[in-house]
Design a protein that fits this description.
Blueprint: H1 6-29, H2 35-49, H3 57-61, E1 65-66, H4 68-77, H5 82-89, E2 90-93, E3 98-101, E4 109-110, E5 115-116, H6 124-128, H7 141-147, H8 152-164
Antiparallel strand pairs: 1-3, 2-3, 4-5
Helix pairs in contact: 1-7, 1-8, 2-8, 4-5
């Protein structure tokens, strides 16, 4: 496993984004047989090549959606009320009706080592990211279309899918 070079990753995304999104759209419209099995096989290969702790681009450039359960759990950890937690750290996104971080990078990211200071109790959205091992891959293609721009693991998975499918 090698360190993620974010500059190189962003260049690859700029160069291949349109092609990758087009590929994912074709897969979404006409899922090949065995898609879920193929992605389940490819996922461990991806994690052999991508080290999240050398990247943390998701935490630096995106925000998770906080569920009410997330807010209660994290507020209790900090010994504050859910409202106090929201007032200090979150903002309500009216369009999507979601609670999100007020700032980026994430306030819980330690920029020295790219580790999450609340990893054990992090939001469910963070715990599931980048959502690679979902059983119904076709239901998450819209998420992967977005995440190829932010996550080297998602990018690598799509790259491997394209190679495997001869695209």
């Amino acid at each position: 496993m090698q360190a993620v070079n974010l500059r190189s990753f962003k260049q690859k995304v700029r160069h291949n984004k349109r092609k990758f999104k087009s590929f994912l759209t074709r897969v979404e419209k006409n899922p090949p047989r065995g898609l879920d099995k193929m992605t389940a096989t490819l996922e461990p290969e991806v994690w052999k090549e991508v080290d999240c702790l050398t990247c943390a681009n998701c935490c630096k450039t995106m925000t998770p959606t906080y569920t009410n359960a997330d807010i209660k759990r994290i507020a209790a950890h900090f010994k504050v009320t859910p409202q106090e937690f929201k007032d200090q750290w979150l903002e309500y996104e009216k369009k999507d009706k979601d609670w999100q971080n007020r700032k980026q990078p994430c306030q819980f990211l330690n920029l020295k080592d790219n580790k999450c200071s609340i990893y054990a109790i992090r939001p469910a959205d963070c715990a599931g990211f980048p959502h690679l091992p979902k059983k119904k891959m076709v239901d998450y293609i819209h998420v992967h279309k977005q995440n190829i721009e932010y996550c080297p693991a998602t990018y690598k998975l799509v790259e491997k899918m394209m190679e495997r499918m001869g695209d």
